[in-house]
Write a structure and sequence with these properties.
- The protein is of the alpha/beta class.
- The protein has helices spanning about 10-20, 45-65, 85-95, 110-125, 150-165, 180-195, 210-220, 235-245, 260-265, 290-300, 310-325, 335-340, and strands spanning about 30-40, 75-80, 100-105, 125-130, 145, 170-175, 200-205, 225-230, 250-255, 275-280, 345-350, 355, 370, 380.
Length: about 375
């Protein structure tokens, strides 16, 4: 998710924690593995959080119905933070203080994760599958953090590679004026250098979106053949609407964070034709084994939300966690779980592979290009 630039204090705190992160102790009972989660179930990005949370709970419900993992059921204690940094930090502080919390799972949002990370690292608690592609959640040398989804720079590089392959040479970039946007821009810039693409025009858009129309006008004047949109939330909507007014048929390419149902609804007739990179398979593509499994669990859980990429991502994160827990033994500890996860190589879920190599790297490099259809559904 989009985020403000981490403060100097936050960066120093994270670096200090890297040097001396202890291993947390956890008082688990013999029948339950308790996970903690701070996630936006309400607020401006509540639809994203709800989808991801429901995907994970569908997986855990399915596993628990079959007897759990080595005889233990999984309980996900989700705390709503409303996409608010202070609430998220308070949630995580409480979860860490509760010694029955085995791990933190799928916490959401780069601003929140950046703020909570120093304490998380210091505590030594496993921090599994944070929902962000930001590099700040991928510090090198920290064995307690497990990232699954591809990073934002990975997505940007994939989009530029696609454009280069189809012969596009004049590429415009609109990126958010914060750490998220700058990571997207840097990934795109490096990919353009790699493919010897020069002369592109880049513009920034503030978090408020107030300058989106001016940014669109500036890019349109440069006459690009395509535009990479490194924006999230309101700036995405404001910029795309403005760009459609400037040049209706201009190809637009965006990252996975743009593809929420709320964003597509807000864009209305301006959404069809936008190409969006995705970090999990198409949730309607039932020929893919992990998607078919997800659809079955989703139906069994009785979820009323429509299946989405975010719901599938939550499900996949839960599936990977379950497999790591299974490999941690019949009496898992946080230490055995951490070791089991790092020893998990080429885990094939059927159309999605997780491969844990070293701290700081994502376990997945899965990225595929989708397009928004006329009914606001994604097609490949």
């Amino acid at each position: 998710m989009a985020n403000p630039q981490p403060t100097h204090f936050q960066r120093r705190a994270v670096l200090a924690a890297l040097a001396c992160a202890p291993l947390a102790t956890c008082a688990q009972d013999k029948t339950t593995i308790r996970l903690g989660q701070s996630i936006a179930l309400s607020g401006p990005l509540g639809d994203l959080g709800q989808a991801m949370h429901q995907g994970a709970t569908a997986c855990f419900a399915n596993v628990n119905a079959k007897g759990g993992v080595n005889g233990r059921t999984i309980k996900l204690d989700a705390r709503d933070d409303g996409y608010d940094v202070k609430r998220a930090v308070a949630n995580v502080d409480e979860l860490i203080a509760d010694k029955s919390t085995f791990a933190l799972f799928n916490c959401m949002g780069t601003p929140m994760i950046g703020a909570m990370l120093p304490k998380v690292i210091e505590s030594g608690i496993p921090f599994f599958a944070p929902f962000t592609g930001a590099l700040l959640a991928r510090p090198k040398g920290v064995r307690t953090i497990f990232n699954i989804r591809a990073s934002y720079p990975d997505e940007a590089e994939e989009l530029i590679q696609h454009l280069a392959t189809i012969g596009i040479r004049r590429i415009g970039i609109a990126y958010q004026n914060n750490a998220f946007g700058k990571e997207v821009y840097e990934g795109a810039r490096l990919a353009m250098e790699k493919h010897k693409i020069t002369g592109g025009t880049a513009v920034t858009v503030e978090n408020s979106g107030a300058d989106a129309a001016a940014a669109a006008a500036k890019l349109a004047a440069a006459e690009p053949e395509a535009v990479l949109v490194g924006l999230a939330g309101k700036p995405t909507i404001d910029f795309i609407k403005a760009m459609r007014q400037q040049r209706r048929g201009l190809p637009l390419y965006a990252l996975s964070v743009m593809g929420s149902a709320a964003t597509l609804r807000a864009l209305g007739d301006d959404a069809p034709g936008i190409a969006i990179s995705q970090v999990v398979p198409l949730p309607s593509h039932s020929v893919v084994p992990v998607v078919r499994e997800f659809q079955q669990a989703w139906k069994a859980a009785g979820v009323t939300l429509e299946p989405s990429h975010l719901a599938l991502e939550g499900y996949i994160n839960a599936r990977v966690f379950v497999e790591a827990l299974r490999r941690a033994g019949r009496n898992p500890t946080q230490a055995s779980f951490i070791d089991a996860t790092w020893n998990m190589k080429h885990l094939d879920l059927g159309g999605f592979e997780a491969h844990f190599t070293e701290p700081g790297r994502s376990a997945s490099r899965f990225i595929e290009l989708t397009m928004v259809g006329r009914d606001a559904r994604f097609i490949r």
